[in-house]
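Researcher: Please translate sequence to structure tokens.
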Amino acid sequence: MSIGGAHAGLAITGFVVTLFAVIGGAAWALIVGGAVAFCFTVALVAIVGGGRRRRAAVTRAYLLTFGWAGWL
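Model: Translation complete:
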């Protein structure tokens, strides 16, 4: 996983949430965006529980949440 892949994952996720807003309405965009935010929060809590702090924890959670795009 790389930070570039995570940035691409964030961009793709933003596009998908926007697509849901256009096609399905604001409620669906909030549901999908909320699910992504929940995944990020769970990853952040797990990483902080594992001993990482501050920026390192946020970076690792960002990579875990959005780094999947590096494999595309």
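Researcher: Any highlights?
Model: The two ends are 11 Å apart (CA to CA).
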